[in-house]
Amino acid sequence: MDPLHTVLLTVGLFAFTFLSPGPNLLVVVQASLASGRAAGAMTGLGVATGDAIYSGLGLFGMATVITAGGLLFSIIQILGGAYLVWYGLKLLRASRPLDLEAAPAPGRADAWRHFRRGLVTDLANPQTVLFFASIFSVTLRPDTPVWAKAAAWLGLVAASLLWRVLLCQLFSRAAMRRGYARSRRLLESLAGAGLAAFGLRLVYEGWSRR
């Protein structure tokens, strides 16, 4: 396969997953609606960083180190799942009013908090590394040039970041935030329940693998 086609196919396969519901989508959308564009962007940057880490591990054949480790895989699942349960319950209990004024850029502490939330949410599911490894197994060959492999990885990271930027741009718009404010309790309850359920599944799977 032509190296350029390899890069495009790799990024294209990854892009097909963007609209599938999951915790990564939820945390970016929720941060954008609740705290504005800058918060959503930092959360998205955290998610994209997690994708960069796991796709890098998948590219360099480190997926088996995590998945075959047994105990390490279980620990990542349990701790990551526990974090998602905690954050989901936090959303379920949230009831503060939403400030619809133009959200200022978050301070350093707030920016780090949003970035960390996106990063931990992405890293919470170590099965993601298997997903990236499966993409590379389809699109890359032993004779694929190193530059093409690097370009494929950079393309994945760029696509992940661009998608999250588009999400925060869309969901931080005033009309979206006004609608969110009217149904905040319901929407945060749904988001919290979804994150908690996904976290419980990770904890259960991690505990069962011990």
UniProtKB/TrEMBL annotation:
One of its GO terms (cellular component) is plasma membrane. The chain crosses the membrane at residues 60-86, 123-140, 146-166. It comes from the Bacteria. Keywords: Cell membrane, Membrane, Transmembrane, Transmembrane helix. GO terms for molecular function: amino acid transmembrane transporter activity. It is found in: Cell membrane. The keyword Cell membrane applies. Its main location: membrane. It is a multi-pass membrane protein. NCBIfam families: 2A76. PANTHER family: ARGININE EXPORTER PROTEIN ARGO, TRANSPORT PROTEIN. This is Threonine transporter.
